[in-house]
Amino acid sequence: MDENEKLKPQPEGGEQKDIELSPKIEEYQNKLLKDPNSLIFLPLAEEYRKAGMIEEAIFYLQEGLKKNPTYTAAKTTLARCFFEAKDIMKAKELLDEVLKETSDNVVALKLHGQILLREGRFNDAKAILQEVLKFRPNDQEILQILDQIKTL
Q1: How far apart are CA 124 and CA 144, in angstroms?
Q2: Model's pTM, two decimal places?
């Protein structure tokens, strides 16, 4: 398998998925194929995540992080993908790592609050999300979550 083949997600069974790619995904894939060391893997993975293609997003993030293990934004996005895939343990492990490196990472803190909420740790989630609101006072998602917590 050549380097370019390694950059294509291989579903279980090794069969390539027949999917219609958005123009951005195709553009980012082409850039990554031209330069496998590029950091373009993060926006590519984010496009896959937004399209609901979590497995593909996880694949590109894991591959990219092999070459760029200190890329905090990529680790945070990978944690978000694991969260969306309901793999809470992997999401928590990555978030712990990210928050040790950058304790004021608002995206990671918000995701950590959402995980705590899913685990039923409402007071802990509330404390973290209120902290995030100091940096993002108009974040509607956080405001809605905090309103929901009040009713629990």
Answers
A1: 16
A2: 0.83
**Tens-level pLDDT at each residue, the chain (152 residues):** 444 444 555 444 444 454 566 899 999 999 999 999 999 999 999 999 999 999 999 999 999 999 999 999 999 999 999 999 999 999 999 999 999 999 999 999 999 999 999 999 999 999 999 999 999 999 999 999 999 888 87
Residues 6+ apart with CB under 8 A from 113: 125, 126, 128, 129, 132, 142, 145
Give the tokens for residue 9.
């997600």
DSSP class of residue 53?
Answer: -
Nearest by Cα to 110 from 68, 150, 65, 140: 140
Q: Are 133 and 145 in contact (CB under 8 A)?
A: no
Per the CB < 8 A criterion, the answer to whether 117 and 149 are in contact is yes
